[in-house]
């Protein structure tokens, strides 16, 4: 896949899946804008890649999203691909959730991608062939114990993807969605060793995904190899949810 001449923005790119996506796009020749609320981590990640730039972004802030759109237009003059990879979660029984926890889950995992997408759509439309890839979760497809509100937010991203794909087809913008299962990210590493082993054992392949394996799916949806694909959801879970 070749992304030469393309400008790509990836959220949550300081680490994990977002970082793997940024690295893969750079390797494929793209100009990549990494965004993250973690300024030190984001700057270090961009510095480690060729043809990569970092812009600090809090996706929960509408003002930040709108300001970012202005900066991209001024500094790059275009945007071809948006990857909404940012995410956050803590596994916790629903009855232990607080309203503050709900608000944070929804702000980062649902409303963040929604308002950033809205801010950047004019640039994507102007490109003439914009691509949006949303990173949801298999929790949003089939539910997940201890992740009830997170699953609801990620399920919302799936529905958002499908609906936006219908609206944007007339603008020659394709919108698709990747749903990772358990993946070797800092978030996964924050779980207890017992939980990590339980998740691995539940997967038919008996291991979690590498972030680069999720990135492969993202690049497919962002490339011309999926030129007749929009509004679709791809599970990358080692067979964990193959029957759902």
Outline the fold blueprint.
Layout: E1 7-10, H1 16-27, E2 31-36, H2 39-47, E3 52-56, H3 62-75, E4 81-84, H4 99-127, E5 131-135, H5 138-142, H6 148-168, E6 174-180, H7 186-189, H8 193-202, H9 211-222, E7 233-236
Parallel strand pairs: 1-2, 1-4, 2-3, 4-5, 5-6, 6-7
Characterize the biggest β-sheet.
Answer: 7 strands, parallel
Overall mean pLDDT stands at 95
Total beta strand runs: 7
Question: In DSSP terms, counting alpha (H) and pi (I) runs of 4 or more, how many helices?
Answer: 9
Strand order across the largest sheet = 3-2-1-4-5-6-7
Determine the structural class based on helices, strands and strand pairing: alpha/beta
| Fraction in beta strands | 5-15%
CATH architecture: 3-Layer(aba) Sandwich
Q: Work out the count of structural domains.
A: 1
The SSE string, one letter per element, is EHEHEHEHEHHEHHHE
CATH-defined superfamily: NAD(P)-binding Rossmann-like Domain
Question: How widely separated are the two ends?
Answer: 30 Å
User: Considering DSSP H and I runs of 4 or more, what fraction of the residues is helical?
Assistant: 40-55%
């Amino acid at each position: 896949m070749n992304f030469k001449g393309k400008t790509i923005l990836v959220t949550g790119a300081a680490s994990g899946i977002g970082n793997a996506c940024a690295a893969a796009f750079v390797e494929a020749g793209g100009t990549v804008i990494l965004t993250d609320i973690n300024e030190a981590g984001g700057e270090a990640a961009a510095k480690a890649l060729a043809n990569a730039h970092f812009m600090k972004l809090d996706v929960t802030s509408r003002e930040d999203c709108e300001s970012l759109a202005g900066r991209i237009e001024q500094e790059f003059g275009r945007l071809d691909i948006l990857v909404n990879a940012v995410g956050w979660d803590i596994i916790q029984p629903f009855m232990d959730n607080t309203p503050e926890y709900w608000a944070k889950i929804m702000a980062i995992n649902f409303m963040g991608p929604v308002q950033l997408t809205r801010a950047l759509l004019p640039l994507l439309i102007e490109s003439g062939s914009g691509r949006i890839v949303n990173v949801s979760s298999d929790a949003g497809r089939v539910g997940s114990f201890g992740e009830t509100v997170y699953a609801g937010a990620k399920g919302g991203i799936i529905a958002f993807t499908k609906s936006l794909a219908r609206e944007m087809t007339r603008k020659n913008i394709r919108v698709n969605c990747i749903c990772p299962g358990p993946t070797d990210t800092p978030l996964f590493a924050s779980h207890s060793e017992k939980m990590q082993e339980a998740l691995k054992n539940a997967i038919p392949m008996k291991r979690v995904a590498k972030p680069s394996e999720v990135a492969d799916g993202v690049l497919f949806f962002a490339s011309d190899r999926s030129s007749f694909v929009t509004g679709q959801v791809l599970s990358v879970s080692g067979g964990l949810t193959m029957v759902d």
